[in-house]
Amino acid sequence: MEFIFHGAGKEVGRSCIALDNTFLFDAGLKITEHGTEYPTLFDHSKIQAVFLSHAHLDHTGALPLLNHEGLQCPMFATRMTKLLTEVLLRDSFHIELITHTHPAYHEANIFAVLKYFKDVIYKKQYEIANAFFQFLDAGHIPGSASVLFQYKGKTILYSGDVNWQNTLLLNGAQYSLQNLDIMIIESTYGDRGHPDRKQTEQHFAKVIQETIEKQGSVLLPTFAVGRAQELMLLLAKTKIDCPIYLDGMAKKVTDLCVTNPMFIKDASALRAAQKRVQYITSPAERKKVLGENCVIITTSGMVTGGPVMDYLKLMFFEPKHALLLTGYQADGTNGRLLLQEKTAYVDGKKVQWTGRIEQFDFSAHAGQNDLVGAVQRFKPKHLIINHGDEIAIQTLAEKVKPFIKKLYLPENDEVIEI
To answer: Using CA atoms, how far apart are residues 116 and 127, in angstroms rounded to an integer?
Structure first.
């Protein structure tokens, strides 16, 4: 059998793996400072099914483009992945329109793609085109899954993005497997681990408390899916006494989480946290709330657009405010600039941030130790490492090399025959 990597080969983003040009694992995009990158070109006329690990655009964002080019087949995903994918694809298309970026597809392709989605239930076995498959809870975001695949006498695991540690929002991945022939594992944090979560949470709450006591407000740029809800739960269990606001796409995602409780750890806790926050319902409210010494959770997580840009304009020249980044900041983003230089581009102008700024690691990806541990437990005969930058992949490869016989580190467009 042949695995062809049309994305995520020695890079983070645009995950897209073809198996025998018959099955496709994910179909994502990658946003760079030079524009959007899609999977490398391939003939998808023979693709009979797509298996989607989760809703993030680096795993689903290319679906409308592939549909525009003729892809029409069942797309298997959990119900939550479908709901979140619709929100993210619509938002992505809307941003391209308002920024005068010509979309690579039509809005009708989003609706068309959604009609091909087929709901799957965790752990239940399904069959298509002489292949059997199961979706296993991956613990990454609500609805995320690793795909266990049986095909041509081989047992294959595609990890997707995975997290084995419990968070406030989700239980970590629980599955344990044996007799794996092939394992395709992500390596976002293949070269490093995560700091102690409890200590991170305590320091996060301390910085917020100190800012509020100095009559400032705290801006939390965050990813709408998973991270925003995690922060809501964290703030709900602290003694911080100030208004908390939620803005941007995170509002819709939070609503989806509480109405689909089977995909999160504790729906009652999230509902309680939701009652603790107030939704921003119009741009006019943004200036008003800053006079209240408050916490604002808003998109986007890398400070590249969305409501966070309005708050930046209002908060830049006030040293009493704090900006706390809670996720990975890619090269070329305002978030990375803020960390490196305390500057950001707003309306085309480079502006200096005068307040406090810190970054916190609340990652929903497995760290190096958990990735190595999974490989040791599962003992695959063949291990393929993808979805990581070159340093992360090479470092993880060195760690697992002693107990893996066949190891592959594919680049994009590389074909692996097993």
So the answer is: 16
Q: State the pLDDT at residue 366.
A: 97
Question: How many residues belong to the chain?
Answer: 418
In Å, what is the CA distance from 407 to each residue of 4, 98, 221? 15, 45, 38
Q: What is the pLDDT of residue 94?
A: 76
Last residue of a domain, one of 337, 359, 381: 359
Contact yes or no for 8/15 (Cβ under 8 A): yes
CA distance 407 to 284: 55
- Give me the long-range contacts of 39-45 (CB less than 8 A, separation at least 24): 39/6, 39/7, 39/14, 39/66, 40/6, 40/7, 40/412, 40/413, 42/4, 42/6, 42/18, 44/18, 44/69, 44/70, 44/71, 45/70
Task: Give the domain extent around 210.
Answer: 197-359
Residues of the chain with pLDDT under 70: 33, 96-102
- Look up the CATH number of the domain holding residue 342: 3.40.50.10890
Instruction: Please give the Cα distance from 140 to 385 (Å, whole number).
Output: 18
Which pLDDT value is given to residue 99? 63
Q: How far apart are CA 337 and CA 349, in angstroms?
A: 13
Measure the N-to-C terminal CA separation of the chain; round to a whole number of Å. Answer: 5
Same domain as 369, residue 355: no
CB 110 within 8 A of CB 89: yes
Unique residue bearing structure tokens 């592939």: 66
**How far apart are the C-alpha atoms of 301 and 348, rounded to whole Å?**
19
CA distances from 48 to 157, 265, 330 (A): 19, 34, 34
Give 263's DSSP letter. G
Q: Is there a single domain that holds both residue 130 and residue 203? A: no
Whether 396 contacts 371, CB under 8 Å: yes
Cβ-based burial of 407 (10 A; exposed 0-12, middle 13-18, buried ≥19) = middle
Structure tokens belonging to residue 345: 């581009």
Q: Are 210 and 355 a contacting pair, CB within 8 Å?
A: no
Q: State how far the Cα of 162 lies from the Cα of 180, in Å rounded to an integer.
A: 17
